[in-house]
Amino acid sequence: RPYTPREDKIADLARQIAAARAAMPEQHLVLGHGSGSFGHTAAREHRTRQGLSSSEKDRPSRRERYWRGFAEVGYQAARLNRLVMDTLHEADLPAMVFPPSACVTAREGKIIAWDLTPLRAALEAGILPVVYGDVVFDEAWSGTILSTEELFAYLAREMRPRRLLLAGLEEGVWESFPARKRLVREITPGSYAAMRERFGAGTAEGADVTGGMVSKVAHMVSLVRSLPGLEVRIFSGEEEGNVRRALLGEGLGTVIHA
Amino acid sequence: RPYTPREDKIADLARQIAAARAAMPEQHLVLGHGSGSFGHTAAREHRTRQGLSSSEKDRPSRRERYWRGFAEVGYQAARLNRLVMDTLHEADLPAMVFPPSACVTAREGKIIAWDLTPLRAALEAGILPVVYGDVVFDEAWSGTILSTEELFAYLAREMRPRRLLLAGLEEGVWESFPARKRLVREITPGSYAAMRERFGAGTAEGADVTGGMVSKVAHMVSLVRSLPGLEVRIFSGEEEGNVRRALLGEGLGTVIHA
């Protein structure tokens, strides 16, 4: 349902992050979250991600409607973020938000400018930086939306973390979906090619199509290919204690690496 | 009282801004607000503005305490900003926040980096950018706080607005305070020098000392000296309709210009 946050779940995740940070205080962590039903509902309605076409740019009424929708999607995404920030604060985590809409410039949906100096300073200070899927201004399309995965792919290229942990609804990447018969434990750029062929992934009928899992895996495979030291893990944030366990190094779900 | 927002007042101001924007849709406007009792209470307690001294930087416990306080002040400042954002949203204004903590880098309390591309794009799109007094990372002091006036002085140098409107509690700059006998209608760099001498402003017993009015005037005089085209107006936001009137060009309060 739109605009219905799972408040207990968010509070539980915040406590798990606090527990993992207390156990490994030297580990630097950047937290990201999507917009859940908040941003997505408004974004679909206003077609924010698509931006403005050249012909629309010249139509003042369409232009104005687009920007009002853009601001509305940003507002709704920020509304969920506040709930997250409040919950992190309650869990006694020194969190600080870096809203992409305020700092990022994109071109054709790709980030072309994001001054990470404040975010790096926050990490050095032991502060927990938080980013989230948000509207951003786009030099070609006027505006668009960047997903948390897209933001983290950029951050990974700039900051070279050891690990990228994607906690979602599924236990990992399934060979068949929705049958969920066998979890794929490991994906490399090599095995991914074979996997795509065997299961026809990449089409809507693909093996593991669940809420954009195909595109998420493709995105992450291309990321580890360009960053060979990076380990990406796709796992379930639903099972109790999983986020804490993953942060402390347990090998949950599906690992993607080069 | 700390953490006590004047919600009716904020709602009234939002409606005045909406009315002025509707009357002059072409006028570009950037909105700023202080942290009121929210940021200030926490900032005093944690001595955030002063940053970390060199000796403190080497003391892990002091360092950690400073950064926890820094994050707390940022959180409290953001908490008041959310209330402002909600109120602007209710007034149907397409507002978007640009938190300085996420985008600005300072050195010895002066802004040295702030990529204004997204903020300029917001203005172009007819979105209302909002900034507020906030914690920022500082390359010399570790961290500090920038006031809304300091942020706007930077924005004015970069964006060359026609006017800077400072709505506060007082009707303008008083010759004597708290006697409030005569309002100074106009201040120029030339008249300011005489004024300082006559009234001994700049000391704690100065003519117009009210919540930092002396330093505010000094700051703004130096700003108009370096930006001769700029008109700064200090006026009361308390009187009904004043913000709308000032936005629409009425000559309220004290004007400062070169």
Topology:
The structure is a homodimer of 258-residue chains.
Chain A: H1 7-23, E1 31-33, H2 36-46, H3 54-57, H4 60-90, E2 95-97, H5 100-103, E3 104-107, E4 110-114, H6 117-124, E5 128-132, E6 134-138, E7 142-146, H7 148-159, E8 163-168, E9 173-174, E10 183-184, E11 186-187, H8 189-199, H9 213-226, E12 231-236, H10 242-247, E13 254-256
Parallel strand pairs in A: 1-5, 2-5, 3-6, 8-12, 11-13
Antiparallel strand pairs in A: 3-4, 6-7, 9-10, 12-13
Number of domains of chain A: 2
Number of DSSP strand runs of chain A: 13
Shape of chain A: globular
CATH superfamily of the largest domain in chain A: Acetylglutamate kinase-like
CATH fold field value of the largest domain in chain A: Carbamate kinase
**Roughly what percent helix of chain A?**
40-55%
- β-strand percent of chain A reads 15-25%
CATH second-level architecture of the largest domain in chain A:
3-Layer(aba) Sandwich
- Broad CATH class of the largest domain in chain A: Alpha Beta
Largest sheet of chain A: 4 strands, mixed
Q: Provide the low-confidence segments of chain A as ranges.
A: 201-211
The interface involving the most residues is between: A-B, 37 and 37 residues
Instruction: State the assembly state of the protein chains.
Output: homodimer
Structural class of chain A: alpha/beta
What is the H/E order of chain A? HEHHHEHEEHEEEHEEEEHHEHE
